[in-house]
Amino acid sequence: MTAMAEPRRIDPSDGEAILNALPNPVLLVSPDGRIVDANMAAESFFEMSTQFLQRQSLKEVIPFGSPLLALIDQVRDSGSPVNEFKVDLGTPRIGRDRQVDLHVAPLTERPGHVVVMLQERTIADKMDRQLTHRSAARSVTALAAMLAHEIKNPLSGIRGAAQLLEQAASSEDRMLTRLICDEADRIVTLVDRMEVFGDERPVARGPVNIHSVLDHVKRLAQSGFARNVKFTEDYDPSLPPVLANQDQLIQVFLNLVKNAAEAVADLGGEGEIQLTTAFRPGVRLSVPGKKTRVSLPLEFCVKDNGPGVPEDLLPNLFDPFVTTKATGSGLGLALVAKIVGDHGGIVECESQPRRTSFRVLLPMFNTSSKHQSNDDAVPGTSSAASHDTR
Length: 390
Fold this sequence. Notes:
By secondary structure, the chain is α+β, with helices and mostly antiparallel strands. The protein folds into 3 domains: 22-120, 2-Layer Sandwich (Beta-Lactamase), CATH 3.30.450.20; 124-197; 202-379, Histidine kinase-like ATPase, C-terminal domain (Heat Shock Protein 90, 2-Layer Sandwich), CATH 3.30.565. The chain is built from 11 helices and 16 strands. Strands 2-1-5-4-3 form a 5-stranded antiparallel sheet. α5 packs across α7 and α8 crosses α9. The model is unreliable at 371-390 (pLDDT under 50).
């Protein structure tokens, strides 16, 4: 009989590598409340290096009176793990809206020490909201088709009748007939813009350099609506191509940049828009019609230092007709959500005063994408841009 080989014990250095490979932030807290160790995900969450965290008390990096402190005391007293869900650990440094699930457990090998693992709620919540955005976009698609047929034809008759009346009308009555024509034209324009949602023609996708797209959008903005706004960039130069349609990406980011420019318009020379790109592995999304989950490692952000989006609008910001502008129709962000959703991605907004960020997550192009891009072409939209959103 062949003797079974003994399992290899994990080397301490292997344990550190495993800890750093975890996507969730993990902290080791000493009996006096100081942070003893942290993994790389914790560094990213708290925006501090492990060396800096080790010089801090846990109280110094979480909100005052946080439930996490009581949970740690409970774990020390009971000697048993404790879970708590939807706890806000947001601070001005890392952002106010940082909801997490907490998993706190004692470290039996080191009495009094406690392991804290955080699991951000934002990704799961974003997935749920993205499905809602897609459902809203589908509703607009059906509404657009109905409007085009049921409204544009009668409006054409109304406008024609007004033009006939205008020929024999007095100067005072001509003002009224002209008003009828102008309002009919305005409604037709709105319906035309909504028809963008109903365009289901397949659009070929391929490798797109996102930095070329953002540079093109920036040049368009600086030559027009954002000529007095300061732009900054924080790009990852090693980013792989994104699997997308370039014209539609330009439309998406032109809408987002125009929103940001309008948000900072009242700040004068202090208005600033930041464009960022980064590689964020670990986010995967189920796409209708596909058995496999799509990885969304490419993150593109448009940030501004404007007053922010009203809190009551944030949950429905990507729904049609939601806008804070007196003259806006609220279709721009609904169109952005549709295009990004058609590409199998996620778009989300996080907003606080002086810190608003629209984040787009998209799949990257690879060799398998090259053979599938035409077969899997997503429903597209017209290239006509729509800008009135926030």
